[in-house]
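ESCALATION

Customer reports they have been waiting on this structure for their group meeting. Please prioritize. Original submission:
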Amino acid sequence: MRILTFSLICAAMVTPCAAEVITVDENGGADFVGIQDAIDYSWHGDTIEVWPGVYNERINFYGMSITITSTDPNDLSVVEATVIDAGSSGNAVTFDSGEDAASLLVGFTVQNGDRGIYCYYSDPAIEKCIIKNNNESAIYGVDAQPTIAHCRISENGGSVEHRAVYGCNGRISDCVINDNTGGAIALCDGPIGACTVSGNSSFGFEMCAGIIANSVISGNGDTGIVSGDGQIIVNCTIVCNKGNGYTYGQGADPILSSNIIVLNSGYGVQGSATLAYNNIWANTSGSYDGVPPEPTDIHKNPLFAENGYWNGDPNWVQGDYHLKSEAGRWDPNNQTWVIDDVSSPCIDAGHPAYPTDFEPYPDGNIINQGVYGGTEQASKSPNGQYTYCSSIPACDIDEDCRVGVSDFTLVTADWLRTEELEPNMVIQEWAERYNGPDKNDDDALAITTDSSGSIYVTGWSEGTDTSKDYVTIKYDSNGTKLWADRYNGPGNDYDRAVAIAADSLDNVYVTGSSKGTGGKLDYATIKYASDGTRLWVKRYNGPADGHDTACAVGADSWGDVYVTGWSEGAGGDKDYLTIKYDTNGSQLWAVRYDNPAWGLDDQANAMAIDAVGNVYVTGSSNEDAFTDHYTTIKYDPNGNEVWVAHYSYTDEEAKAIAIDSLGNVCVAGNSNGANGRPDYATIKYDSGGNELWAARYNGPGNDGDYLNGIAIDSVDNIYVTGSSESAEGDMDYATIKYDPNGSELWAARYNGPGNSNDYGLALALDGLDNIYVSGESSGVSGDYATVKYDPNGNELGQARYDGPGNGDDSPSAIVIDSLDNVYVTGWSQDSGYYDYLTIKYAPSYTCTTIITGDFDNDCKIDFTDFVIMSSHWLECNLEPQEACWE
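Update from on-call: job pushed to the front of the queue and completed.
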């Protein structure tokens, strides 16, 4: 039996301080008019959304793990209209406080600095930005590993000595780096892929030591690539550069394989290199200099779809470097496949040991040379097998790509066979959206259920004349909205609910932050009756009359209510602040915690309450301006401090807390490892505050691992979840199970169908100790993705939701009721704005043994299955179609 038996306590146990969406508009009407002001207000995990405008300021992240984004980074017109302008001096954007990939800049035009973006001993993420017209470099790094993706970097630098991207050792992908005065990329040692580097005044690449793959290096004013130590250059098209195609720079011999190196003004390859299966042709000075000819290389016209050319000096006109093919070539202008009357000799001419990966059928089973080799846009092979199955038809049991007599025979062999059902993944029963009266942004942040199976969600919604309001909604189990209440605080401005709990009488409590008449944020806690009647509202303004932000709420079995978060103290620093109210809203006590050893910021993020009314609060305390540590406090029911426990490894932030059946306390969050990157860190204390064990998780990417949730099962096993970088550099869900002694039992990772970033955001357990993890997963765009695991870590299934228009959808919270129904809430994009989105999933069942021919999945073969097969009778998906009748 668990010590916490009432659902409201479970909700309070696992609710961290919800990440905030902070808005910026230079014209007013948002939370701030300047980006730096928003950064200075923000806390780790927050998102700063900047509306279009020209922001004449230089910004610094100051170590904050936040996302700063334009309103729509996928819309080029929005990116072009959302400008950070440094005013022709300094750095437009600075990362110099040890930032990592959790510090993200996305969807801006960054211009008119000495350096557009400066990274000093920092590893941020920079995505979907236009970086232009900076005096020296677009991005300049010193011992930095920024991740740079989908950026356009052009017209930077004041002389040929400058480099557009310098000293950046992280992954650079899907970028266009063109028309810069000076070189494009120098001294960048991380992997570089799918980039176009063209029309720059000097070198394309200079002294980089990582891999360069599937990139175009064309029309640069000097050599295409000057190699670094042990560089690998694979599947690149190096064409029409005014120097050599490739020149040896320093260190161990580079490897050049499956490249097209043609039409350069110097040599194709000059200096030491290991060569294999390249096409080196029509370079003005010759194919090789200082390196022996390679027998596997070819020397032929590559037959590009369209050659690039010089239209004066320095005007470079980019070509189309897809390879002509009689079997099919991708036409990017018309987004279709076209047929040519000739085929390039570079098709099926790459290294035979390299996988063809995503090359379309027919592919000849050998990778193509050049930029598109191994990709979905590789030209098709005229040497491939032409008869193929485009997709297996429904009811094709023998998988011969057609439905016919042989399939009918297989079904009749199992006539009337029946197998048992077992519970498996859930199925979606309903999805309810809420869009407020202003038809603008709405974001649900917390969810709970009551004893009757009703569901409550809360968050914020933009009002007609009120900026953001609390909005709390009650649904019945069928998804019918029973009531909705909006709360606009006395400041008639910013009000944002972040946590919710229900007590044993089905009263509901909501807390968050709300601006008062003085323009500062206060705690604002509301109690509702089950019918939506607002019973009381209690506000707290700290002694400094500064900002006070509540992060978690819970209630005990006597109906008393607890709220925690942070509050600015008299010195301007943040303190933990925990308040207890009785059932009528009278304040029983309020206790502050300001770490006496360090005296800087202390921010509570999560709270748990045990069966006798002891309260446990966790979060982080600043040791100095750049270093945080876990700080966990136990208070007795009267608000007396019982103990304080710190976890100090390097730099930490506790985000979640839970209590087991023996009264032990488990705290989890993020802690930098020996490599300076965040790991999961889970700590277990006994009821006296003594540390029993600490367990850490460093994912396969040996990089960023960001924890978001914790839960404890019926036998005191501990589960944590969050996001973890893979070996390929993308984020996956990562869920870990520990036994009560801290031994890791299993680690399960989830990589969604987009094979890109997946962020585990919340978890919950059902009555059988199955684990549900929900988060944002890449599909067409960001989707809700809820994954179910059994107690042994086996994935039982997943449920995904992609909202209208394939916009972004991101859940914030998950809860499971007593019948094992699963509810997930968050936001979903529609027509450019965010709505509340709440989904109910009900348990489903699968067969203990799969029966071939059970087309309706009811675990038996009967007349219905024959009806389904008849609807697909004689379907055939062989190509060409003539093969169906051979």
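Sent to customer with the following note: The radius of gyration is 30 Å.
Escalation resolved.
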